[in-house]
Structures are given as structure tokens and as C-alpha cells.
Prior knowledge:
This protein is mainly alpha-helical. About 55% of the residues lie in helices and about 10% in strands. It has two domains: about 5-145, no CATH class; about 150-245, no CATH class. The protein contains eleven helices and three strands; from the N terminus they run βαααβαβααααααα. About 20% of the residues are buried. Keywords: Repeat. Pfam families: NPHP3_N (PF24883).
Amino acid sequence: MTDVPLHFENFSRANGAQLGQQTINLIAGNQYLSNSRKTALKAEPGLLAHGASLTRQLERLVYEPFQASLKRGLIVKAPVKGPFLIVVDGLDECENKQGVVDFIDHMLDFFKKHPPIPLRFFIASRVEEYIRTRLENDGVLLGDLNSHSADEDIEIFLQASFQGAMANVRVIQEFVRAHGEWPTKSDMSKSISHIKGSFVLASTIFKFIFQPATEEDPSTPMGRLPLALEMNGLDGLYAQTLARS
Length: 245
């Protein structure tokens, strides 16, 4: 099953009006929903006004347009097959807790009434009590990121990143010819352990190792790798990077 993003929206620190207007405006602007959205706004010009009901906005600007597009066969013509996916990130950061509760309740009610519809919500959030109690539902699949190790994914990311970068760095190619494999399996194992599942740290370490040499710092990637593993997380890497600029 392949998911097709409708939109990625961050529920940041916002009040109720912003939560509704910004989120609905962006999601409903998707190419498959835009025509039905225009029709809905003509019929109800105040849908995006300050203080408009979030559940009404969801109904008229997201759910109904999606169902209309489905009936007209527009969804079938999408370039990638499978359910459409709306990603909601940082739901717990919204200050309007009642707005969040209304959003979840209305969403679950919609899917209860229309279980076969090819639409999914992916919600990333800290599990605050007012959110957890709403999401403990048969129609929701809950996943705890703390119960899954990201080490394998970090290893794949590092291997692909290193291999891609090494193809264009002559000093590394010469080092490998003279000394053998780099980074070694031990280097990779230490890197994964140091990164502790953080893709942000993995990306920052990679950029630090492969940044171009300067007159002030002519060190090579082979010299920077052990240095990066001695630094204290992102703060240490940022400090070192700023010191070179």
C-alpha cells in the first residue's frame, strides 16, 4: 500500500482560529479538493473566518470535497495508488486543547461512518492525557516510538551518505587504497551508538565530517570522524562548526 501525501501540516502553538484556518486552508488547497473547496466557500463564505467551527471546516472543506472527488473518479487518476495520507505533526503543541479534542472526535466519527474511504490521518504527538483518551479507539493504530530502535535506519542512512560522498573525495579514495576500508565496521558501530537514534544528530555529524577543508582547518574526513564522536551531541558539533566559520 502506497500513501500519497495530501499535505503536511504542523499544529504549532496556535489558537483555535489559527488551528482551523491555517490547517484547513492548506489541506483543502490540494489539487484534488480545490474545486469542491471553492464551491463550499461560495455557499458559506464565512468558513475561513475568525471563530469558524473547526469541525464544520473539516466537514465542508476536507471530508466532503474528498468524497466528491472520489465519486468523480479524480482520486483513481492519482499518479500513485493507495490511500491518501494527511500528516498532522505536533498536535500536542496546539494550545487550544478543546480544538484538538473536537478535531479528533470529529475525525473518528467520520471514519466510523465511512470506514472504506481511502483516506488516512497520521498524527505525530506526545501522548498527553486529553489526546490519549480520545485516540484509544478501535479505529486507531497507536505506535510508541520509544519502543522501536532507530539504529538500523541510522546505519542505512550513514552507509548511503558516506558512500555517496566518498565517490567525490579523492583524499578518501587514496586513504582507502593505502589503508583499507573506511569507515571501518568499528567506526560505524561507534557512530551509531553515539547518535542514539537521532537523525538530526546523524545528519549533523555527516555534514561536519565531510565539510570542505580550509586553511585554518585542513583536517580530512578521516580525522574529523573520531573528533565528532568525542563531541557532546549537537551543542558540541555546532560549537565546532561555528569555530571553523
